[in-house]
């Protein structure tokens, strides 16, 4: 079979959830030795080391100024259609080939419309609805996303297959203190810290995280509360986060290092006292698995897909309840027995998710 794959997201310079999904899944698909031929479509030349070249692989680089998927990739589907097109990031070209498979990551914009710009929300709704219906098959990255597609867009359940993310093999505990201190110094982190990793945007519920952290800080003696590191690139309305840090007088406790590349994440996760992921909605929530893989106890929301991903290996809280979030943070920071138990459960939980299995 001749398989075309939209690999544009995989070539992004700063990769977060969807981009990492595209990269890891494509790499493992190519490694399956399935006998298929692959053509990867890019809107810019990818880094040379992204994909090892083989006789069964072809790279198609098609620069285009705007609307690359809808116009340029559509034209390619008309001119030289593959037997099947796989799109890992839910946006099919306007003229798809006869057979196509698309991954839908989440429908969070339907649950928390205020966390998205109006035009972004409108585009997400219309495009996801079209793509899910136009595709021959749909991959949902969690049962929660599958249920949403059935409930809100009327898709037949048999058209949708749940295929979970994997966890990158590089996500392992870092024991070398010199490596940890080097990474901490790079981001101006001193001492112990609580860690969040993800885009700085309203859907991630960081305002309530800051409020909960402020409560924890008031309940402990000065100097005993670990700092709070919120790592991730700036998203929509990120200015509100900076304003709340100032309002709560947390300027000296909260560190916002920006985007952290994949190479630094294992050390950053391994050194954290606690990983907290209070998101209001997630299609999957890969950072939860990554923290578990690095031996860090996890506190996360009890909504959408996160209970699926976390299983019994995290402390789950209502993301709208600031007091409960603060209580859970305090408990995980102080109860060594619970911390040890969650770390061990986390190692077992991560083993259920691999990119080989996903591919």
Give a written overview of the molecule:
The strands form two sheets. The protein has a seven-stranded parallel β-sheet with strand order 3-2-1-4-5-6-7. It has a six-stranded parallel β-sheet with strand order 10-9-8-11-12-13, with helices on both faces. α10 (286-293) links the parallel β11 and β12 (298-301). It is built from 14 helices and 13 strands. The two termini are 16 Å apart. It is globular. The chain has 359 residues and is α/β, with parallel strands linked by helices. α10 (286-293) packs across α13 (336-350).
Set out the fold topology.
Elements: E1 2-6, H1 17-30, E2 37-42, E3 57-61, H2 68-79, E4 84-87, E5 100-104, H3 108-111, H4 118-134, E6 137-140, H5 143-153, E7 160-162, H6 177-186, E8 193-197, H7 206-219, E9 227-231, H8 239-247, E10 254-258, H9 265-271, E11 274-277, H10 286-293, E12 298-301, H11 306-310, E13 315-317, H12 322-334, H13 336-350, H14 355-358
Parallel strand pairs: 1-2, 1-4, 2-3, 4-5, 5-6, 6-7, 8-9, 8-11, 9-10, 11-12, 12-13
Helix pairs in contact: 6-9, 7-12, 10-13
């Amino acid at each position: 079979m001749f398989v075309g794959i939209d690999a544009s997201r995989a070539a992004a310079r700063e990769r977060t959830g969807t981009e990492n999904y595209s990269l890891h899944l494509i790499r493992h698909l190519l490694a399956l030795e399935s006998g298929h031929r692959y053509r990867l479509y890019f809107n810019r030349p990818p880094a040379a080391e992204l994909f090892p070249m083989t006789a069964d692989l072809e790279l198609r680089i098609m620069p285009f100024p705007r609307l690359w998927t809808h116009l340029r990739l559509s034209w390619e589907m008309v001119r030289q259609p593959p037997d099947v097109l796989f799109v890992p990031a839910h946006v099919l070209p306007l003229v798809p080939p006869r057979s196509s498979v698309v991954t839908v990551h989440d429908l969070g914009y339907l649950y928390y419309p205020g966390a998205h710009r109006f035009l972004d929300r409108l585009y997400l709704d219309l495009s996801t609805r079209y793509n899910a219906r136009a595709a021959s098959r749909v991959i949902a990255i969690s049962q929660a996303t599958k249920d949403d597609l059935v409930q809100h867009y009327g898709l037949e359940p048999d058209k949708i297959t749940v295929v979970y993310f994997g966890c990158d093999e590089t996500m392992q505990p870092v024991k070398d203190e010199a490596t940890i201190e080097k990474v901490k110094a790079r981001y101006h982190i001193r001492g112990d810290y609580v860690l969040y990793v993800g885009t700085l945007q309203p859907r991630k519920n960081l305002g309530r995280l800051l409020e909960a952290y402020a409560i924890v800080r008031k309940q402990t003696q000065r100097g005993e509360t670990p700092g709070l590191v919120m790592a991730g690139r700036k998203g929509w309305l990120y200015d509100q986060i900076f304003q709340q840090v100032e309002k709560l007088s947390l300027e000296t406790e909260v560190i916002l290092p920006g985007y952290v590349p994949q190479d630094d994440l294992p050390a950053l996760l391994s050194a954290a006292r606690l990983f907290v992921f209070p998101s209001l909605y997630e299609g999957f929530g890969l950072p939860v698995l990554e923290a578990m893989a690095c031996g860090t106890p996890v506190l996360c929301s009890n909504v959408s897909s996160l209970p699926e991903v976390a299983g019994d290996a995290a402390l789950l809280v209502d993301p709208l309840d600031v007091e409960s979030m603060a209580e859970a943070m305090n408990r995980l920071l102080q109860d060594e027995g619970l911390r040890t138990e969650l770390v061990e459960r986390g190692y077992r939980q991560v083993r259920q998710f691999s990119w080989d299995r996903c591919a």
